[in-house]
Prior knowledge:
Layout: H1 7-13, H2 24-50, H3 60-67, H4 77-89, H5 96-104, E1 113-117, E2 122-128, H6 137-145, E3 151-157, E4 161-168, E5 173-176, E6 189-196, E7 201-204
Amino acid sequence: MSLQLSETTKIMLKDVTPIYSNDLYSLSIFEANGFSMETISEFANNLTSELFPQNATWSLIYWEEFLGIKDIVQKNHVERIQRVIYELNKYFTVTLKRMETVVNTFVENKNAKVIDVDNEYRFIIVLPQSNSKISPGLFEAVEEIKPAHLLASYQLDTNAKEYLATACLSGGTTTIYPYYPKNSNMQTKMIFGAITQSAQSIEIYPKGD
């Protein structure tokens, strides 16, 4: 009969007389001690990770209690971590770098940039389009943490192509234009097209030069 020894047990056996390696009872004791040491080491490594809120799992509830965060029942794990990091950043002077850190807690790929606009009392938050998910808490967090005299502007950074088209069998006027709920400023290639049998006029926006 042989025992499957852990790596920790093998290391321990190297430091003692070889006679223990041939005794099943002794090997069992060493293996039990090795298992205990690995458990302690794993807990210590996990505890070090839990000291940082972005890695928090079981310690997240303690961060929330420390910061006085409530109403967490309806939030998922990622949203709770975002809130903790946001609250921690409120205790420090808001610089561009710190604002960027706060913004990226709500951005999927953590690649947003914050640009200061000289002499205009505002800054621009550049959000790359590569992010498929941006937490809705971003705008509220920025408004709460930014200095009151500064205006926050948002810029969607995209290199994508956009295609819009329509087809009309009959009608007086057909109008084609991209719809956005808010004003957007994009540098991108946009292609629009239309096909109709009997429309009297077709207007395509935005109109080129």
